[in-house]
Amino acid sequence: MKAATQNWTAYYPLFTGEDDEGRSWCVVPWQMFRTVMDIVGTFKSQILEALYDRARAARGRTAALTTQLGELRQEANRVFERIAAQAGRECGWRATGGVTQIDGRKLAAGDLDVVLARVDGSRLTLILGEVKDFDLSLTTPKARERMQAKIDGAYAQLRAKASEVRPVFRALARSLGIEPERYSSARLVLAVITSDYLPPHMFHAFPGVAVDTLPIMLDDVANDSQRARALYGRGISDLS
What DSSP character marks residue 205? Predict the structure, then answer.
């Protein structure tokens, strides 16, 4: 405690010792702990992606490995989709993830990662979230350029999926338990939901929101606040 309260941790990043009963203890500054966890997260994401890309580039020689790595990536993405959907439910939204079809028709543009819906008054709000487990490592060459390319790819996916959803949004809402009689107007909100915070200026087309701050976005959108229009207005459009 003396090391922490007297700012020794600003100069010595790690203290270890034993108490009077022989139990070991360790003091680590929170800044170092956060840095280590960020590195672990970035390593986890990038090593899996690098292995998959290398295996895929080898083509037939590593077909089985490529398949296994692809399945591992998909499962990791599914877990994150479930986390985002649960965050929506805890905020009072109807939520689902991994939607592969609407009204019995398979989606050509790919699965809907996360769909959130609610009715306020007589207006339905549908949120399509493209969920991405992005890690931005500023220590690697051209990290920002690669991340921007990934975000732009997410935009392309969102646009294609939104085009499919618009004609059948009532059926999508009904699959979440919201009948057409409950609303007379509807709007669609598009957003990229990321695993960690990314600089806002990187999201030039549709808004990006970290899953930790998703409840703030949902509250703003539900209340149609001025901040919601300022931050997320680029991704909001009428459906009816």
Answer: S
> Tens digit of pLDDT for each residue in 96-130?
988 999 989 999 999 999 999 999 999 999 999 99
pLDDT in tens, 179-204: 999 999 999 999 999 877 777 778 88
CA 81: distance to chain centroid? Answer: 7
| CB-facing half-sphere around the CA of 138: CA atoms within 13 A | 4
Contact between residue 165 and residue 227 where contact means Cβ atoms under 8 Å apart: no
> 18 - beta bridge partners?
24
Question: Rounded to the nearest 5°, which phi and psi values hold at 14?
Answer: -150, 130
Q: How far, in Å, are 94, 116, 218 from residue 214 at the CA level? A: 14, 11, 6
Phi, psi of 213, rounded to the nearest 5 degrees: -105, 5
